[in-house]
Amino acid sequence: MAGSLWKTTYVEGSPRVCVDVAGEGPLLVFLHGIGGNRLSWHLQLPEFSKEFTAVAWDARGYGGSDDYDGELNFSDFSHDLERLLNHYGAQKAHICGTSMGGRIAQDFMALYPDRVATLILCDTFAGDDENDARASRTQTIDEFVESRIRPFLDGAAPVELARKRGGRLMAPEHSEDARRRAIEASSQLHVESYIKTVRASAAFSRIDNLAKINVPTLLLFGEQDPLTPPTVADYMMEKISGAELVVIDKAGHMPYLEQPDAFNSAVLKFLMQYRDLAD
């Protein structure tokens, strides 16, 4: 879709954060996954901008956002998100995060509970619960880190790796457009920042905070997600009081790209119940 449908701008500070924004109304923030960026949400911004100030960010070290010195503390993302809310003058926002973005949303909820109107947690998890295998992704922490960073340590370029891996976390019936969009976002990875992100996020957990989530929460998972299957959602449903669950048919780990109409419809139906809880 044409870039004129939204405006690319920046949240000042250190590091500077790049966002695409469209529409007017309560603030709704989209948080991408570990291999994506703000481009991941370009099938959502036009739809949600009809009712909300819809913002898709590049997390620090991604896309058009600045890189940064030193190691990453995973909660640095949440502090950046607080800056974003302040930038738009919002006391509370609706937060929609997928995969790593869903983990950022959970961390933000733990650190800034008074700034969250609703949570939409997509194909994500809270951490590894050794007492319940349903809680975890299909890879161990070591497997996850190795699979994500080894190609870059061996000299692979983001464009090369994106083309090789494009679509591998999607359902078999994914469209060529979905694959193209995933490749476009992954091709823009900042290698050094990406490696820092993988290492910081691997063992990060908010398992203990799930039961403390007290805002309306939607869990949305792809039926055929090979990384965080819907059994993870079953675990989270038991922990988060009043959470709703939607499973998107014929979708893998990226239903917002694979089945955008179904994704948008489910999220919009949920949000319109609570639209004015944000500002």
Descriptive report:
The chain has 279 residues and is of the alpha/beta class. It has a single domain, classed as 3-Layer(aba) Sandwich (Rossmann fold). The chain is 35% helix and 16% strand. The protein has 10 helices and 8 strands. It has an 8-stranded mixed β-sheet, with helices on both faces. α3 links the parallel β5 and β6 (116-122). α2 (76-87) packs across α3 (100-111), α4 runs antiparallel to α7 and α5 packs antiparallel against α6.
β-sheet strand percentage: 15-25%
Principal-axis shape: globular
Beginning-to-end CA distance, first to last residue: 27 Å
This entry's quaternary arrangement is single chain
Which features characterize this protein?
279 residues; alpha/beta; Rossmann fold; eight-stranded mixed sheet; 10 helices
Compact overview of the structure:
The protein has 279 residues and is α/β, with parallel strands linked by helices. It has helices at residues 45-48, 76-87, 100-111, 141-153, 158-165, 176-186, 191-202, 230-239, 255-258, 260-272, and strands spanning 7-11, 17-22, 27-31, 53-57, 93-98, 116-122, 217-222, 244-248.
Architecture blueprint of SSEs:
Layout: E1 7-11, E2 17-22, E3 27-31, H1 45-48, E4 53-57, H2 76-87, E5 93-98, H3 100-111, E6 116-122, H4 141-153, H5 158-165, H6 176-186, H7 191-202, E7 217-222, H8 230-239, E8 244-248, H9 255-258, H10 260-272
Parallel strand pairs: 3-4, 3-5, 5-6, 6-7, 7-8
Antiparallel strand pairs: 1-2, 2-4
